Amino acid sequence: WALALDPLRNSHPHSLCVPNFVADRVALSTRSRRPLAIPPIHIWGAPGIGKSHSANDLALALGAPLRRHSMENAQTTALLLGTERHWSTANPGIIFEQIVLGTSANPVFLIDELDKAPRNASYDPLPPLHSLMEPTTAVTARDASLDMTFDASLAIYVAASNEPRKIPDSLRSRMAEFEILPPRGEQALQIARIVAARAVEQLFIPGFSSPDPRVAHKLAHLTPRAIRRATELAVATALINDRRYLKVSDLPDDPFDDADFKVVLQ
């Protein structure tokens, strides 16, 4: 487990609180020989600093499948726990699909944009999360479309938000909360090297070289999201010039001149 969490620490040196929290829970599990139970995690901070990618990498470290659910465009509560059976379009929810029909009792659910969930007097998509994030009630989770109960108590929830004050206190009290601050100094350089190399790798271009450290240094003032975008643009420029490696000159001059996409190198 320690070795599995090391890549997570290397990729996200500005948010070590998350892998350290998970490592504590892993230690409790291995010493007690009980199933791994990780309380719901809430990570929040400015847009683009790697919250969603941190959840992705956590799932990889745990060897667990990941299912993402964005609350920003949630229209019904049915996506989590199914549609009521009297509807002709009734379908199971993603919790049932991942746990009962899947391969793992503890999949990772990324609940993204939690603070942007639409809420009004007649509709609120958040109530199912109250019972799902409470182990005593999650052990008898009910899927509405099948009218079937199942044990969802080992599911791992990672919620991400920008403005936690918009999230009900009743839900926040169920989660371990961590503020993710923009990386600084060597942290920013380390993240730039890893993100740029991963961006090139994920483009699947045969024979394309991993970025030179000078490229990462040029990108280190940007957030991970902006680094990925800038690297992709630079790769396209290199290919247009019939090269399979990056030059600093391939990078956009200032691709994202927005305060939300900048980090501090001091």
Features:
266 residues, 5-stranded parallel β-sheet, 7 strands, 11 helices, single chain
List the helices and strands and how they pair.
Layout: H1 2-11, H2 17-32, E1 41-44, H3 51-62, E2 66-70, H4 78-81, H5 94-99, E3 108-112, H6 127-132, H7 135-138, E4 141-143, E5 148-150, E6 156-161, H8 169-172, E7 176-179, H9 185-201, H10 213-219, H11 224-240
Parallel strand pairs: 1-6, 1-7, 2-3, 3-6
Antiparallel strand pairs: 4-5
Describe the structure.
The protein has 266 residues and is an alpha/beta fold. The protein has eleven helices and seven strands. It has helices at residues 2-11, 17-32, 51-62, 78-81, 94-99, 127-132, 135-138, 169-172, 185-201, 213-219, 224-240, and strands at residues 41-44, 66-70, 108-112, 141-143, 148-150, 156-161, 176-179. A five-stranded parallel sheet has the order 2-3-6-1-7. The protein has a two-stranded antiparallel ribbon with strand order 4-5. It is globular, with a radius of gyration of 21 Å. 35% of the residues are buried.
